[in-house]
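S.,

Sequence below, as promised.
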Amino acid sequence: MFFPISVLRAATPCRLAMLSLCAIVPAQAFAQEANPQPTTLDTVEVVGINDIQAEQALTPGAVSVVDGNTFYQRSVTNMADSLRYVPGVWSESATGGDDTFISSRGSNLDATDYDGNGIRLFQDGMPVTTADGNNHNREMDPMAARYAVVARGNNALTYGASTLGGAIDYLTPTARNTDARQVFLSGGSDGAINGRITGGGVMGDFDGLLTMEGASRDGYREHSQTDRFGVYANAGWQPSGNLDLRVYGMYVNNHQELAGTLTRAQFEADPSQANPSAITGNFQLNVKTERVAAKGTWTDDGNQRLEFGLSYEDQDLYHPIVDKVLVDFDGPGPAPPVEVFSLLVDTHQRTLAGMLRYSAKLGDHDVLAGLNYADTHDKGGNFRNDGGRRNGQTGIVDNRSDSVEVFLVDRWKFAQDWTLVYGGQGVFTSRDVSTIDVETGVDSHPKGDFSSFNPRLGAIYALSPTNELFASLGRLYEAPTNFELTDEVRGNNTLLDAMHGNVVEVGMRGGTAAGADVPRWHWDLSVYYAQIHDEILSVDDPFAPGTSLSKNIDSTTHAGIEALVGASFPFAGGAHRIEPLVSVTYNDFSFDHDPVYGNNDLPAAPDYAVRGEVMYRNDDGFFAGPTFDVIGSRWGDFSNTYRIGSYSLMGLRVGVECEHWDVFAELRNVFDKDYVSTISVRDVADADAAILQPGAPRSVYVGVRLRF
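The prediction came back faster than expected:
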């Protein structure tokens, strides 16, 4: 729930609430509300939540804004936790750690789910996703964000994105828009502990903020330990009221053990076990990231705004992922089995990125023009894996990509209650993918350019000052990633075609007027239908486990319903409230008369996902109530032969928010149900296929934040 500081009460009632909390922590816990219009602290920002909400209100489609303050009121350890109540986004962690699967509107539903493609990630409006469109090495830290803005589908035009899944922008807190001195500590089941300390302040025209973080987690499965250390810093100079110049620095060293996938028999016998090959192969995902960025924001009396920035990100990836595959060629003969395949990826990646955005109010027109630029170079190699150690290089990797996105959109209020939104995006991107086989010297080297113009047309009708209807029609476009080109099923340096299609969307958003003692509602509803051509899907290579084969699919359909509905029912003069919140997603992703798969459903995403909570709150800052998840069934393969069943989970949360401190407790999966969190997609998954990642068992987490 989002609370302005002005409503927080004095310390005496907080102490009483704290005693109540200590009495019930073992049985109750915590969750979060994803209010589409979060509250801000009582400080001055050059670019703040009002700007975000203004852009949200001028988008004829689904855009969600999540307040990062709520991440300190529950257990948030990864992107999946932060996006829990965003409809249309399906995100889960394989083992409860930082490594997450994320899909928006049916993106990323194939064997290269590690690629994380289909969604453009931004940090403070500057591109984070690599130039080729993958997010393989990068997990955003939601605890380092003041807000998260999720623009689904081609509603990400204002970010210059045309991908199926849209864009997510994590906005960094500064000393001017957050508590500059605070300490946060959380911990709980499976050895989880997370500590953050933040210091900084404002001195005239200058401000600065520094956060240091350490996190560790044993994991609820064997061989799933996570350790992370991070430093986040930014400093700003505001020489005048309409100019903000800011620099950012980030260092994150993240080590994750991977437990591997299980067969159904293994899952039913003991979901906490690891795949034996994950232990003998010592599967890991270790990424060290260093990032520096500079950004400027200029405004002119609210009629013009210019944002510009550059960033440089450097990453080292060490990734043992496939154990030795041994073949005994002479059967019971005297020769020992021979290793035919194993995989350890060791690469160095750097990305230079930039952005430029200019907006102006010209009478009834609100015009936005922008440019994104990214250049990525990925260099290193593939090695044989000997228990997590390099055992001879098998491939030399030298991949390059660059991307330029230009976009223009006009929001024209041509009548009192009507706004016409029209514009387009042009994308120009290249791929140069080289993998040299060390043994043969053969260079697999697909290389080519991709470009497209992607128009958008929409309208917004104001039903009232707080409610609006919207509709839009637009084009989606996404070029293949380097991973997909490397694994192109035909080989011979053949290029895949870019995915493209059209999407139509209608919906409404708004709420009832605020009042101290009357019920209040807020809602956000979108219905969309996308016809996609040449969607790039990858299936596992049966002759090389851990690798995949990519191809274009002639026609697929992505459709869905996304809804977020919340309310507040006050009683006792408004001092007490019952506040339910529910996020509903219905998915219909399928092949369209495919010669191989017919009209089969696409795998990995559930048919539906309902997540919600019912919270009691009072004016003393105390809150408590149940949370719930109702998740539909999924297919584990393109052939629709392997079904993963639906499941339902219950949770509890409780907490207190006071003037200078917050405390929470959260109990997840109250009834300790076994369920599948993520899967590894196959073409045809037989009954013994090892494709299941178990979800977390019953878990308890507590946390406290002190603000000075």
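The chain has one domain: 5-707.

Coffee later?
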